[in-house]
Amino acid sequence: MLFERFDQSLEGSVGTAQFVPFCTPAINLFPKRLDRIHLSDRVNEHHVIADRTRPMDFEVHSLTAISGHGTGPEQPFLPFYAVRDPSRYGRDQSYYIVRREPRVLSSDQRRNGPRSTYIGSESFVSLVDSQQAPYRHDLRQLGVSALCTNRDLPLFMNTGNGKTDFTLADSAPVQAIRCLAGPSRPRPSHAHDGKAWRLISQLSLNYLSLSEQGQGAAALRELLRLYGDSNDAALQLQIEGLREVSSKAVTRRLPMPGPIVFGRGLEITLEFDENAFRGTGVFLLGAVFERFLARYVSINSFTETVIRTTERGEIMRWKAKPGRRPTL
């Protein structure tokens, strides 16, 4: 990263300690063949359990394959909400639908308390067959393959002790594998609590939702909550630090090559409480919003983003940025 001016305070802050070779991110995500699901015509959805002997040590991240087993041939099931080529798979297929819900505490957990604040979620599947409802009558079991995590189990790793923190599944000339940072706390899935619908609602963010008195800041705070960690108190404080959003129509010279052209656009002012951004400042978040807001403005218009704080007033005004909203 190159700067336009010399800053002596930065010269001594970067050294060899900031660069560690032979490092890579490690994600707690792995393929697993799950326990068989016994089908029953008395229920319309079936609980997907990774390991019945250790249910709290595994959590289903996503399903990769489902097949039905019975007296007849194996019956594959495809995800119902997925893009596929009809010429390859045909239209007369069997499908599954996944529903995810927060895990309910067991009686022992309610009595003694859970082992951590992260509980996780449970997955359920429903089956549908275009030829036989709800599925072929001879099927008795479901075989499921999935990508899984270990829920909150990595939080209890005793890192930094012994010869190595990890072992390899395959043989390799590696003496030790150390965990330099983490493990980080697991985050809940966005597939429950209505978050998926709130993510879809971001597609309708427009001028009206930003210009309504008192609603603009609430709309942007809701957007930030969708992408932020709800368990991070400092992050939630910064989200609440966005106090007010206002907009007004302005006329500016359009920043484009060629003859001088003027057009109408939006001046959007974001007001922050600097007390919520101690140690970081509001400039970085404002710069992200400056680029983000331009994506919701159509061609031949622009946004002009202004940052204000309740303590210092206006601190930054970006130049007019042409609209980046794609035209269908």
Which key features would you list for this structure?
alpha+beta, 2 domains, 328 residues, 13 strands, 8 helices, globular
Describe the overall structure.
The protein is an alpha+beta fold and 328 residues long. It has helices spanning 8-11, 86-89, 107-112, 195-201, 207-211, 216-227, 233-240, 283-294, and strands at residues 30-33, 37-38, 46-48, 59-70, 75-79, 94-102, 121-129, 139-149, 242-253, 262-272, 302-309, 313-317, 321-322. It folds into two domains: 30-155, no CATH class; 195-322, no CATH class. The protein is 18% helix and 28% strand. The strands form two sheets. Strands 1, 2, 3, 4, 5, 6, 7 and 8 form an eight-stranded mixed beta sheet that branches. Strands 9, 10, 11, 12 and 13 form a five-stranded mixed beta sheet that branches.
Per-chain topology:
Layout: H1 8-11, E1 30-33, E2 37-38, E3 46-48, E4 59-70, E5 75-79, H2 86-89, E6 94-102, H3 107-112, E7 121-129, E8 139-149, H4 195-201, H5 207-211, H6 216-227, H7 233-240, E9 242-253, E10 262-272, H8 283-294, E11 302-309, E12 313-317, E13 321-322
Parallel strand pairs: 5-6, 10-11
Antiparallel strand pairs: 1-8, 2-8, 3-7, 4-5, 4-8, 6-7, 9-10, 11-12, 11-13
